[in-house]
Design brief:
The structure holds two protein chains of two kinds. Chain A is α/β, with parallel strands linked by helices. Chain A is about 35% helix and about 20% strand. A seven-stranded mixed beta sheet of chain A has the order 3-2-4-5-7-6-12, with helices on both faces. Classes of the chains: A alpha/beta, B alpha/beta. The structure holds thiamine diphosphate. Chain A: One of its GO terms (molecular function) is oxidoreductase activity.
Chain lengths: ~325, ~375
């Protein structure tokens, strides 16, 4: 396609292509029809593909998820939209107890090619339950794959790859970046579960995903003015994690800093830090550091900037890493 | 190429068969005041009111609408992050809210500003959440009005549990749980019906069927009128004209007394209409026709009571002027109050995460303070 698209539009085009390419693909969710979803990601799709394929469901996430599983058993390829991060929890039981385990329980006889799209993360000044980062819950569950794009190209291709996958994929969309534009290329360029070095550097590796990739790129640009060359790796997939790419980078730079919006405690950063410490122990100049949210409920929007990692907090961590 | 498949057409009710479609109001609707403002009687729900009570209800409706309008414009001016307007639903909320006794307890969604008003919650407290300075800025126990719940349907279970507690205490209070037509699809709501029924809990489920769950019409949630759901769970269901404050008052008063007397739960479906957008983030022109909204204007809950007061000569010009002046004053107070509402201290993040000390939270608070102090002026962000 090769075009400048917003992440929102790139996702919309990916859904359109998936609906065109496979008649078994169906979209399900609240307000995804006439409204086109609250973020307009499904804009125009019901008009073009009909109410049987772009389904405005009753307001019941457990129902959406459970019936998607049933449709998958019947040979369909459901793409589920959860309206906001905080509203996936009614579906959590179906996701964790059924979706994640069905393939293993059936000894491989059954596949669960379901994609669960969830706008996630903060920074949009929203009320409660509209700003959460819950990737660790899903990544902790064997049987689920968890991916999150940071730019329009990846948004488009990773969504198409997720829909084509025969495994259940939790597809986390960085909602505060929906309107960021970028080039969407002719082909994916990378397999779905690979990380990507988005900025090469030599002094330390910033590891981020989703909404934090942009922050880390800004950090690297600012650090360069101070003569520090930071490498930025976009993780893209939170489960599985492409440790080979991370290891190669951190062995070269000797320092790693993981940045995510989710609370640091028991977060994805903890897993990355632990594994990189094992794999890169003799190459490390400093412990792997983590920057993220606090161990507290996501706060009211007037103080969310304090909760969210920003340029200063990441730079502060870079200083600490370099001081070792 | 687009692959289009035909959506199966929804069947219309056969001629002569009662139309059970969810969005159709007649004929079961309880009404005590016609849209023209004429008082009618209903055999099951008698109501006697004094002129003073009627005027007081009118005052409630006007002030609640004024507060709501003020909040909508404050959102437009950037003072609030979001607002969920109750426009059109004033009678359902004031009627049911005024049916409560002081010891009764209400569990709202995020739109029950009119019920909050009846429970004497300061309107400014409601706005803190929509401004983004807190997640619900009042003590629920002080006003017997729970915090707003955004996760659709959750509060119906809390209401039921609270009601179960009332039974255990041997008290004669009752609980009212608010939710929408969309929420009726949630598992939680259906589980609440089950628990309430099985434990004979003194809870009234008050569903404001405002015809829309964001962009989805009620027919996306149910194929029978919502109030009839109750019978499957084993308790009574009533559909009331949600734009008729007197009918809402009478039916809710009956239901609360029914519940508090040990007869178990009641489901009330208040048939009403969301005149505005779902929230200030919503654009209803994408999914509903202006004619529909226009048609509902003729059923306006405030005009209806005003017509009644006028016809019966129950209020004079001085009264209406007084209410108008009071509403101006409320608007001003809300406006000024919101504008001067301070941003919280960032350390609010660490307050009340737990009721007892927690080492991690304490550590993170200390780290944050040290970090913030490292900036010029000691303040970050
Ligand atoms: C569990 C959950 N899912 C989705 C949402 C997003 N959402 C907020 S309001 C709403 C529609 C609610 O409709 P209804 O219950 O009819 O109440 P109304 O807003 O019309 O008063 C939706 C889908 C939510 N808040 N919680």
């Amino acid at each position: 396609m090769s075009a400048q698209l917003s992440i929102a539009k790139a996702l919309n085009e990916a859904l359109r292509k998936s609906l065109e390419n496979d008649p078994k693909t169906v979209l399900m969710g609240e307000d995804i029809g006439k409204l086109g979803g609250v973020f307009r990601i499904t804009d125009g799709l019901q008009k073009d593909f009909g109410e049987d394929r772009v389904i405005d469901t009753p307001l019941a996430e457990s129902g959406i998820m459970g019936t998607a599983i049933g449709l998958a058993l019947r040979g369909y390829r459901p793409v589920v939209e959860i309206q906001f991060d905080g509203f996936v929890y009614p579906a959590f039981d179906q996701i964790v107890t059924q979706l994640a385990k069905m393939h293993a329980r059936a000894l491989g006889h059954v596949k669960m090619p379901i994609t669960v799209r969830i706008p996630y993360g903060g920074g949009i000044g929203a009320v409660e339950h509209h700003s959460e980062s819950h990737e660790a819950y899903f990544a902790h569950t064997a049987g689920l794959r968890v991916v999150t794009p940071s730019n329009a190209h990846d948004a488009h291709w990773m969504l198409r790859q997720s829909i084509e996958s025969d495994d259940p994929v939790i597809f986390l969309e960085p909602k505060r970046r929906y309107w960021d534009k970028g080039e969407v290329g002719e082909d994916p360029g990378f397999p779905l579960y690979s990380a990507r070095v988005v900025r090469p550097g030599t002094d330390a590796t910033l590891i981020a995903y989703g909404p934090m990739v942009k922050v880390c790129q800004e950090v690297a640009a600012v650090a360069e003015e101070d003569g520090r060359r930071l490498e930025v790796v976009d993780l893209r997939s939170v489960s599985p994690i492409d440790f080979a790419t991370l290891e190669e980078s951190v062995k070269r730079t000797g320092r790693g800093i993981v940045v995510h919006e989710a609370s640091v405690f028991m977060g994805v950063g903890a897993e990355i830090a632990a594994r990189l410490t094992e794999r890169c122990f003799y190459h490390l100049e400093a412990p792997i550091l983590r920057v993220g949210g606090y161990h507290a409920p996501y706060p009211p929007s007037r103080v969310e900037e304090t909760f969210l990692p920003d340029l200063d907090r990441v730079l502060d961590a870079v200083d600490r890493a370099m001081a070792f | 190429m687009t692959v289009k498949s035909t959506a199966r057409a929804r069947k219309k009710a056969a001629p002569g068969v009662p139309d059970n479609r969810a969005g159709v109001a007649a004929p079961e609707l309880v009404q005590l005041l016609t849209p023209e403002g004429d008082r009618v009687e209903h055999p099951d729900f008698p109501l006697t009111t004094t002129p003073e009570e009627l005027r007081s209800l009118y005052r409630d409706l006007v002030l609640v609408r004024r507060f709501d309008a003020e909040a909508t414009s404050l959102q437009r001016q950037g003072e609030l992050g979001l607002w969920a307007s109750l426009l059109g639903q004033e009678a359902a909320q004031v009627g049911s809210g005024r049916a409560m006794r002081p010891g009764d307890y209400a569990f709202p969604t995020y739109r029950e500003h009119g019920v909050a008003w009846c429970r004497d919650v300061d309107p400014l407290n409601l706005l803190g959440m929509f401004r983004g300075v807190n997640h619900g800025g009042w003590d629920p126990n002080e006003k017997n009005f729970h915090l707003y719940t955004i996760v659709i349907g959750s509060q119906t279970l809390h209401a039921t549990g609270y009601a179960m507690g009332i039974t255990k205490d041997g008290a004669d209070d009752a609980v009212i749980a608010y939710f929408g037509d969309g929420a009726s699809s949630q598992g939680d709501v259906n589980e609440a019906f089950t628990f309430a029924s099985v434990y004979n809990a003194p809870v009234v489920f008050f569903c404001q069927n405002n015809q829309w769950a964001i962009s989805e019409p009620t027919t996306n949630q149910t194929r029978i009128p919502l109030y009839r759901r109750a019978s499957g769970f084993g308790f009574p269901g009533v559909r009331v004209d949600g734009n008729d404050v007197l009918a809402c008052l009478a039916v809710t008063r009956w239901a609360m007394d029914h519940a508090r007397s040990g007869n178990g739960p009641v489901l009330i479906e208040a048939f009403t209409y969301r005149m505005g957008a779902h929230t200030t983030s919503d654009d209803p022109t994408r999914y509903r026709l202006a004619e529909e909204t226009e048609a509902w204007k003729a059923k306006d809950p405030i005009l209806r009571l005003k017509a009644h007061l006028d016809k019966e000569g129950l209020a004079d010009e001085a009264f209406f002027a007084e209410v108008e002046a009071e509403s101006e004053k409320l608007g001003l107070r809300v406006r000024e109050g919101v504008r001067s509402m301070p941003d919280p201290d960032p350390t609010l993040i660490f307050d009340h995460v737990y009721s007892e000390p927690h080492t991690l939270v304490d550590e993170e608070r200390a780290e944050y303070l040290e970090y913030a102090a490292s900036f010029e002026g000691g303040e970050h962000n």
